[in-house]
Write a structure and sequence with these properties.
- By secondary structure, the chain is an alpha+beta fold.
- The protein has 2 domains: 248 residues, no CATH class; 57 residues.
- The strands form 5 sheets. It has a two-stranded antiparallel sheet with strand order 1-2. A two-stranded antiparallel ribbon has the order 3-4.
- This is Folate receptor-like domain-containing protein.
- InterPro entries: Folate_rcpt, Folate_rcpt-like.
- GO terms for molecular function: signaling receptor activity.
- It holds the Pfam family Folate_rec.
Length: 345
């Protein structure tokens, strides 16, 4: 759904159109994306099946987007049972849930169906790269030309296309992400000299120079994220409140400023409740009250015990009175009562 008209955004326009999407945000299970279980655009069982089909028996993710991890182990050796690290997988799963199941992502939709484009904060992209930078992916130089042609001719590679460059077959090597084309400017040295190489080199030279984190964020997710240079005008996809604030404080305001005669209310859903259950909170409160009662009882006991001691002169180390700045204060009914009240002891 692309918000370009001046009426209202309905619930039916907030969700995607893939097989695991629901018609509108509604409660679902908690297997894959528990943070959206109270109002998700995804059927939990279906989206879990879709995401987990690229997982090994021990839970390693073998493929993400067009990139294949199955042919490389953690040390960069060519194997047949490789996979993504747990740190990188955690980010990938979180990003997948946000982009596909959040009822608020509709505001970032583009003309490409089911492909939002989110202005991500730089610190998020840096953390994302840090989590994945030491993972190895399959890289086949024989497919580099095809990949670069799509990247620089169409502005983006094609999701779902079986690129030779990313296959774990044939003449492939294991390439660390931080050293790969995902996070660095492409090295065109492997291409044969000719008009195509010259044209691609011109495009590379003319392209905006961006941090590796920005290149990684965009290329690894096929354009889902674009690193924003403005830390005050960006989204942290890990925090749903960051998304809703951006929509209401920027997207809605900007749209309505441009369309004053037909303002639009951009609906958002707050994050699902997390943390302690109501029962647990009640239990903690009761426990605190019991604790306070015990403390009060102990105070009363010791104050009352002091009242049973004999009156007279006291010295340090003897019981019966209170020592304040070395001055003996004889115990009286008033001081005992003050102790019982717990106001001034």
């Amino acid at each position: 759904m692309t918000t370009t008209r001046g009426d209202k955004v309905t619930n039916e326009e907030r969700c995607g159109s893939l097989s695991y999407h629901m018609a509108y945000p509604q409660p679902t299970g908690k297997e894959l994306c528990p943070s959206y279980s109270c109002h998700s655009c995804c059927d939990d069982a279906k989206v879990s099946s879709e995401f987990n089909k690229f997982k090994t028996a021990d839970g390693q993710l073998t493929k993400y987007s067009i990139f294949d991890f199955s042919g490389c182990d953690a040390a960069g050796n060519k194997v047949q049972n490789g996979g993504m690290s747990s740190t990188c997988t955690a980010y990938v799963q979180s990003n997948f849930c946000t982009s596909q199941c959040s009822p608020n992502i509709y505001a970032f939709n583009t003309k490409m169906p089911n492909r939002p484009q989110i202005p991500a904060c730089q610190n998020f992209c840096q953390s994302f790269l840090q989590a994945c930078q030491n993972d190895y992916i399959c890289f086949n130089p024989d497919g580099l030309t095809e990949y670069l042609q799509d990247m620089y001719s169409n502005g983006q590679v094609t999701e779902g296309k079986d690129y030779l460059m990313t296959r774990c077959t044939g003449n492939y090597d294991c390439k660390k992400i931080s050293e790969s084309i995902i996070a660095n400017e492409p090295d065109l040295g492997a291409l044969p000299d000719g008009p195509l190489k010259k044209k691609l080199q011109e495009k590379v030279d003319a392209a905006e120079k961006v941090p590796n984190s920005a290149r990684f964020c965009e290329k690894f997710t096929l354009g889902l994220f674009r690193e924003s240079p403005d830390d005050n005008l960006c989204v942290d996809p890990r925090q749903e409140t960051s998304i809703t604030s951006y929509i209401k404080d920027y997207k809605e305001v900007a749209y309505n400023k441009a369309h004053p005669d037909a303002p639009v209310n951009f609906p958002v859903s707050d994050p699902c409740p997390t943390g302690l259950s109501t029962g647990a909170i009640i239990g903690i409160v009761i426990g605190c009250l019991v604790g306070v009662g015990l403390i009060a009882g102990l105070v009363y006991y010791f104050v009352a015990k002091g009242g049973d001691d004999k009156d007279g002169d006291y010295t340090a180390g003897q019981s019966g009175g209170s020592i304040v700045s070395g001055t003996q204060i004889p115990k009286t009914e008033e001081t005992i009562q003050m102790g019982e009240d717990g106001d001034r002891v």
